[in-house]
Amino acid sequence: MPVTQDWTARAIRKIEADYNRSADTHLIPVDLPAFENIQLYLKDESSHPTGSLKHRLARSLFLYALCSGWLREGMPVIEASSGSTAVSEAYFARMLNLPFVAVVPRAIASEKAEAIQFYGGRCHYVERAEDAYEESLRLADDIGGHFMDQFTYAERVTDWRGNNNIAESIFAQMSDEPCPIPQWIVCGAGTGGTSATIGRFARYHRHDTRLCLADPEASVFHRHWSDRKIRTVQGTPSLIEGIGRASVEPSFIPQVIDRTIAVPDVASIAAARTLSRRLGRLVGGSTGTNLWVCAVLASEMAARAESGSIVSILCDHGERYGTTYYNDDWLTAHAIDIAPWEARMEAFFEHGVMT
Fold first, then answer.
1. Are 133 and 112 in contact (CB under 8 A)?
2. CB neighbour list of residue 162: distance below 8 Å, 6 or more residues apart
3. pLDDT, tens digit, for every residue of 244-290?
4. Same domain, 120 and 248
5. What 3-state class would DSSP assign to 220?
6. Is 2 within the bounds of a domain?
7. Stated pTM of the model
8. Which of 121, 171, 182, 232 has its CA 20 to 30 A from that of 201?
């Protein structure tokens, strides 16, 4: 069935109008009492209408699909996701009155499933996260839908040269800060789209900023960065939703990354809880992964008597993880003792050491 140009034009206009009604996300300074010459900032992506960094990606995916002629009126949309992208895509699907099915692992936080359903989407569960891709392809074929495929298209749907992407926003907001060009930008990777955008943007504009990937220990990305022959990893998957994968996704571009640091899940959760107390609001586990890496980098900079700024991302709000990362019974069930790791995070803030 051919795509109706009038419907496509209306759909694009709706998405653009929604964007024009939205303000940019804030860049939050994080107080580092023990570091006189190092500044830390977090780009607060939780303030998007759907509460996470993935709102940017979902908007770009829909516009890319519309302009490519892949969507038509009434067509079901399918996505493989660990949760947050599906929440955001459900929001845009509802805006366009399109049915939406999220193919998600059964272990995702219940709050994310509820958010998908709130926006009119339906969850289609798989037992293992690595099965979501093939199941999405099968489901799209069965019901005549369009598989968005964030893992393939994330690195290309956003204009990395500018057009108000997250990198352009960060550098614009940093312009009046004491050290406006960050020494480091830290981000995780689920699809690899954000790291590709930031890395390309920094190179295109000839900034000296380096990009560090904050990656769960169980993920393949930091292994692939060190050895391109490594494309999969076996074993227990990470508990940190939204980042880290068992297989290298097509959108992951290792060449734009200057360094990777692997973070234990317990460190990510401890860092998220420590930061939540300091901000007076809950943040998600991937933000904790980012913060842990920021602490490592700041400690190294201080040891070399360097000054400068570090920017990272507050990926989503922690209310989505009330039954997991912020539930002590859940931690006990997963044999996670965060106390010594929280002590290390507090020592970083107060004394500038991670011991």
1. no
2. 168, 201
3. 999 999 999 999 999 999 999 999 999 999 999 999 999 999 999 99
4. no
5. coil
6. no
7. 0.94
8. 232
Q: At what angle do helices 265-279 and 285-303 cross, to 10 degrees?
A: 90
Q: What is the DSSP string of 33-99?
A: TT-TTEEEEEEEGGGSTTSBTHHHHHHHHHHHHHHTT---TT--EEEE-SSHHHHHHHHHHHHTT--
Number of domains in the chain: 2
CATH number of the structural domain spanning residue 42: 3.40.50.1100
Residue 267 lies in a domain: yes
Comparing CA positions, the residue from 133, 202, 129 lying closest to residue 168 is 202
Three-state secondary-structure class, residue 302: helix
Domain of 73, in residue numbers: 54-153
Note the Cα 243 to chain centre separation in Å: 6
Residues 135 and 264 in one domain: no
Report, as an integer, the average pLDDT of 49-57: 95
Which string of DSSP letters, residue by residue, matches 231-270?
-B--SSPPSSTTS--SB--TT--GGG-SEEEEE-HHHHHH
